[in-house]
Amino acid sequence: MTKYLYGAASVIALAMLTACGNSAAEKEDSGEAAAATDEYERGPHRGRMLRDGDFALEVTIFEEGVDPEFRVYAYRGDKPVEPSEVKLMIELGRLGGKIDRFAFVPQEDFLRGNGVVTEPHSFDVRVTASEGSRNHKWSYQSYEGRTVIDAAAAKAGGIKVEAAGPATVSDLIDMGGRIEITPEGKADVRARLPGLIVSLSGRLGQQVRRGQMLARVESSHSLQIYTVTAPISGTIIEKNVNIGDTTGDRALFVIADPTKLHAEFFVYPRDAERVRVGQPVSLKSLSGEARFQAEVEAVLPTADVASQTMLAHVHLPPVASREFRPGMGVEGSFAVAQANVPIAVRTKAIQRFRDFEVVFAKVGNTYEVRMLEIGRRTPEWTEVLGGLAPGEVYVTDGAFLIRADIEKSGASHDH
């Protein structure tokens, strides 16, 4: 397995390097003045310098104390030009085909864009400017949080995607509990009349059917022999007598049906008002290997004197007995409130990038970061309030590989 993982990682790394090399080599042949993609001249305000003859623009994205906005400085012969003398337009072509357009107005010694430059700051840029009778055009790429992986390498690395869309997001309360046999699933086997046990056919651990004979007893009153039968089907879990013993108040056997199960949870006072019959519950064993979806069957109205907790029963159908056994510890996530949200992503897909929680969108073989505004969150789903469009395809599995490659390549937030 380790060898395979290293091999897959190598394939992905090679594919990424190849793809990145191809992307850098592709240049627009439009006749416009183009700026270099990797290295570029910086101006006095640490922005990107765009030159055409003796005229130049310095393009910056200003983020100190405000939402990100364009601030552009104009120069002629490296001397500042009055902003009012320049007309400017910038178009940002984003991955997936969306285009953001910005007009500019003079302010102090710069031209200020009329909108917010939303994250990620990753786009193909087109700049058009006019001053006097002269027109100028530039185009360049400014990418961050982006990489390219071919389909074969993505498959080898275990990268999977799906479209963002509506989901049901729940408010959860997590509690610990225990699997128990329900009261209906357990029965004491008693003799009807006092007497001497003359034969026993029931054995500890034996599976029996309802009505099956387990013992024969000689009545002390009539000296007649009668049979004792199983009141339910199940497994004998206790055997308390032997041949020659006399019957009394104690049970001869105890039978339990291991398919009649429920989980018992102790609900603390702070949560008692929120737990209700019928609420969905996600159960898992302490090892995490066994999982099941169930519902709250009952909340007992009395509280434990010592702990002040109430007991909640979660019903388990017979099929659950394949994974859960009586006495097993179990963890439960109670969905105490649910809401249908228009867009959500799988919680496991979310990664950290800079100071953001993100997912990685996929367009063709290109993957790019999407900064999320997040609402409610559960172990399975996270509500998205902004940063990702409905229907946009994002990475659900293998996102850490994409993040690692982007971080390795030094794709920084640099303007």
Question: Topology, please?
Answer:
Layout: H1 2-25, E1 33-34, E2 48-52, E3 55-62, E4 69-76, E5 79-80, E6 86-93, E7 99-107, E8 110-113, E9 123-131, E10 134-142, E11 146-148, H2 151-156, E12 160-163, E13 165-181, E14 186-189, E15 195-200, E16 207-208, E17 213-219, E18 225-229, E19 234-239, E20 253-256, E21 261-267, H3 269-272, E22 280-285, E23 291-303, E24 310-316, E25 329-346, E26 351-353, E27 356-363, E28 366-371, E29 373-377, E30 381-386, E31 393-397, H4 399-409
Parallel strand pairs: 1-10
Antiparallel strand pairs: 2-3, 3-4, 4-5, 4-8, 6-7, 6-9, 7-8, 9-10, 11-28, 12-31, 13-21, 13-25, 14-20, 15-17, 16-19, 17-18, 19-20, 21-24, 22-23, 22-25, 23-24, 25-30, 26-27, 27-28, 29-30
Key terms for this structure?
single chain; 415 residues; mainly beta; Immunoglobulin-like; conserved putative lor/sdh protein from methanococcus maripaludis s2 fold; Elongation Factor Tu (Ef-tu), domain 3; 4 domains; 6-stranded antiparallel beta barrel; 4 helices; 31 strands; 50% strand; disordered N terminus
